[in-house]
Design a protein that fits this description.
Heat Shock Protein 90; 58% helix
Length: 283
């Protein structure tokens, strides 16, 4: 299914339909111009009808491009969400499997009166469990999964991640697949920026999801390179990128489009200490 690119197939069909329509219309015009009397024969009158059908076919194919492309995008995002959920499930299963072993170690340390060692061991285990638990506080499984997947990706790149969620995102007006695109693109942008400094200094990323009486809000901060103020609005434009390599300039423009679709707002503030992407989506 991943090898089937519906969008490209429909574009090709639309182009071929337009070319066919243009060819038939040109032949019709030529016949009526060169041999007007002959064109009045009944069998010749079918050419305009065929031209109209070909043109209508091209128009209908083009009209189908947008919804089919949207469905194809949702399909890919659903596949990614399922993959993230599977990874999260495996992580939790591994933790459950290790939990009994941890208890046995703690019990043995206490029996040996190694209370300080037991306390230190519990702290380490708790930190590991808390990292995963922090990603499980919303009511949307796909969002929980992508937050955990991005946390693991960031930590593999040497980035310390903190996830602070004080909202279950209940009654969120944005579908889960679009919400995953929104958070995923902003976090990916932060991880890419932090990868440039992770080898030189401590890199950190803070993800905050909360709400108030009017809206659902998010705040994603990092201590990556500063974004000049003249680029604060430009980075949300399609095609604009500050990366020298592997930058397409699409991720943040997609985020802006999603936010605008649901009458929200997104902005960025950056200084020498941190870069903050913040936004809200009305209830």
């Amino acid at each position: 299914m991943r090898n089937l690119n519906i969008h490209k197939t429909l574009i090709l069909m639309a182009v071929l339909s337009v070319l066919l329509a243009a060819l038939i219309i040109s032949i019709t015009i030529y016949i009526f111009t060169v041999s007007f009397d002959a064109a009045l024969e009944p069998e010749r009158l079918t050419l305009p009808f065929i031209s109209l059908l070909a043109f209508c076919s091209a128009v209908i194919t083009i009209m189908l491009l947008r919804p089919m492309a949207s469905h194809n995008l949702r399909l890919r995002q659903t596949e990614q969400s399922l993959e993230d959920l599977n990874k999260l499930n495996n992580t939790m299963r591994a933790q459950r499997h290790d939990f009994l072993n941890h208890l046995q170690v703690v019990h043995s340390l206490i029996e040996l009166n190694e209370h300080e060692e037991a306390n230190s061991y519990i702290d380490k285990v708790y930190d590991a469990i808390e990292k995963v638990s922090s990603s499980l506080r919303t009511s949307i499984p796909a969002v929980n999964a992508i937050l955990e997947a991005k946390r693991q990706t960031a930590e593999r790149n040497g980035v310390d991640v903190s996830i602070e969620i004080s909202s279950a995102l209940s009654e969120m007006p944005v579908p889960d697949w679009e919400l995953c695109k929104l958070f995923g693109n902003i976090i990916d942008n932060s991880i890419n920026a932090l990868s440039e400094i992770a080898s030189d200094k401590d890199a950190w990323l803070i993800i905050e999801l909360f709400e108030d009486i009017h809206s659902f809000r998010f705040k994603i901060s990092n201590n990556g390179p500063i974004i000049p103020q003249e680029n604060w609005d430009k980075i949300f434009e399609t095609g604009f990128t500050t990366r020298v390599r592997n930058g397409e300039g699409m991720g943040l423009s997609i985020c802006r489009d999603i936010i605008n679709k649901y009458n929200g707002k997104i902005w960025v503030i950056s200084d020498e200490y941190e870069t903050v992407f913040e936004g809200f989506i009305p209830r």
